[in-house]
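FAQ: What does a ligand-bound record look like?

Like this one, built around 2-acetamido-2-deoxy-beta-D-glucopyranose:
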Amino acid sequence: MMRHWKLFLALVLFQAYATQIFTQAAVFREYIGANFENVRFSDVPINPNVEVHFILSFAIDYTTGSSPNPTNGKFNVFWDADNLGPSQVLSIKRQHKNVKVALSIGGDTVGSKHVNFTAFSVDSWVSNAVTSLTRVIKQYNLDGIDIDYEHFNVAPDIFSQCIGRVVTTLKKNRVISFASIAPFDDGDVQRHYMALWKSYGRVFDYVNFQFYAYDKGTTIAQFLRYFDTQVANYNGGKVLVSFSTDSSGGLKPDNGFFTACEKLRSQRKLNGIFVWSADNSKASGFSYERQSQALLVKAK
Ligand SMILES: *[C@@H]1O[C@H](CO)[C@@H](O)[C@H](O)[C@H]1NC(C)=O
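The answer part, i.e. the structure of the complex:
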């Protein structure tokens, strides 16, 4: 009898342990701060039963001021830091234990020109980026990084070495605890990110694939096919689905985005949802964010 109790106890403990290891909460992520719409973390609904990541947009390795120039990896803050500063980050994380905050590097434009990934040499770019990003991440009490370069002055292999080495170092130094990449369906973009994935895929926790960069009027069937294609491209990665609340394309919430999510959920493929962006959602009150989080609670 005693022996059975011990076996029972061992099974219960194993069960609890296994649940902890194998049940990874679905994640909700939202870009914030790029458009200076005075949006604050506290404006965005936060469901306590989902992991929520805010992604500050953007830190860029360009000079600030009227004619931005590349700085070879010395990052500056380009997001709305008046509304999204260090004290606001601390405050939202204190109020909600399920919230983490990351920064995204790169972005599409700086001062209405393209942000071009530019490095004088791999070693110098990596050294400057590690130093400057560590400073910003500590100053702002951040937890993670997202890679969102969309235009390139360097070959895929150079981009891969620069980004891969920086993210590896920041993780090893425990400056960040998670990292993601944000590619989209474009030949040059995919060449750069897939080179990065091939050499450094293991240091990335999420693939924020920009499904809203597909054509306007994307159907549910097309969306599900695109998802499978990107899961194959970023083999072994946690590919997250996404929609935008600005005028860009893809499958919109009103056209069946959540139906597609339900389908993925039933196939246990719904790892999480991210939104571009809080700045654009502010005017209409974040109803799709609420709906996304409610759906993700069921996806756990
Ligand atoms: C990035 O490169 C493009 C194409 O070469 C150029 O038109 C643009 O001005 C560059 N961006 C910046 C900020 O200089």
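Follow-up question: can I read anything off the structure? Yes, for example: The radius of gyration is 20 Å.
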